[in-house]
């Protein structure tokens, strides 16, 4: 029994030593801070919003509107550059970099998009064009659909007409219970003598909050 316990203790100590050595190696691995800018290869203009990721690692940064970025990586890591309208690029950080700072100018090459063929034909007559201009129903694009879905008046109408879900009902009930708990053991105040309540009442009356809503 004692020999088995000793074996387990030895294995545990060995695992702890191995983990400590691995962690020490990771901590002692040299790091470098890369300060750079992403630019176009043909005109040397800034590429705003470029995404810089560390390959095979779940971390990265985004370039500013001027294409400037800063990231801390280990020496030997590979950076992946990607931007809308540009070809992806990779940059391998040299392991023999002197010091802990590195300046980088990453040139991005514009990518070519091949669009499907579009044939434009004129209307047969001016009358047909005028009729189509007045009555043709053009489907909304994604931007217009998103604008309509986030319209303030639409959101207010939906909030007023749609019933509350379970979470909203629970929140409303808990708020009501919390307000009632304030006056446990005592009489609730009457707002009939409260000038602020009367002012709020007159403002609501002027706004038409008490009118019938259809």
List the helices and strands and how they pair.
Layout lengths: L1 H27 L2 E10 L10 E4 L5 E3 L5 E7 L3 E5 L6 E4 L8 E8 L17 H10 L6 H8 L2 H10 L4 H16 L13 H13 L7
Parallel strand pairs: 1-7
Antiparallel strand pairs: 1-4, 2-3, 2-5, 5-6
Features:
214 residues, four-stranded antiparallel beta sheet, flat, alpha+beta
What does this structure look like?
This protein is α+β, with helices and mostly antiparallel strands and 214 residues long. Helices cover 39% and strands 19% of the residues. It folds into 2 domains: 81 residues, Immunoglobulin-like (Sandwich); 82 residues, no CATH class. It starts with a helix and ends in a 7-residue tail after the last helix. About 3% of the residues have low confidence.
Could you give a quick summary of the protein structure above?
By secondary structure, this protein is an alpha+beta fold.
Shape: flat
Largest sheet: 4 strands, antiparallel
What percentage of residues falls in helices of 4 or more residues? 25-40%
**Roughly how many Å is the radius of gyration?**
33 Å
List the helices and strands in order: HEEEEEEEHHHHH
Number of DSSP strand runs: 7
Spatial order of the strands in the main sheet? 3-2-5-6
Measured by DSSP, the beta-strand proportion falls in 15-25%
Helix tally equals 6
Low-confidence stretches: 22-27
Mean pLDDT: 83
Ends distance? 85 Å
Number of domains: 2
The helix-and-strand class reads alpha+beta
């Amino acid at each position: 029994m004692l020999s088995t316990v000793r074996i387990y203790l030895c294995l545990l100590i060995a695992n702890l030593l191995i983990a400590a050595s691995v962690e020490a190696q990771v901590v002692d691995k040299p790091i470098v801070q890369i300060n750079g800018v992403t630019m176009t290869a043909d005109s040397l203009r800034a590429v705003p919003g470029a995404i810089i990721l560390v390959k095979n690692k779940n971390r990265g940064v985004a370039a500013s509107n001027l294409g400037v970025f800063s990231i801390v990586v280990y020496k030997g890591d590979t950076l992946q550059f990607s931007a809308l309208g540009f070809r992806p690029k990779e940059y391998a950080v040299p392991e023999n970099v002197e010091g802990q700072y590195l300046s980088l100018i990453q040139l991005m090459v514009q990518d070519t998009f091949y669009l499907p063929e579009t044939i434009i034909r004129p209307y047969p007559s001016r009358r047909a064009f005028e009729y189509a201009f007045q009555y043709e129903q053009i489907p909304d694009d994604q931007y217009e659909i998103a604008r309509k879905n986030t319209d303030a008046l639409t959101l207010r109408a939906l909030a007023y007409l749609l019933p509350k879900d379970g979470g909203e009902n629970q929140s409303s009930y808990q708020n009501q219970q919390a307000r009632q708990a304030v006056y446990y053991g005592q009489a609730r105040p009457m707002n009939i003598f409260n000038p602020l309540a009367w002012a709020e009442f007159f403002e609501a009356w002027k706004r038409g909050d008490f009118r019938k809503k259809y």
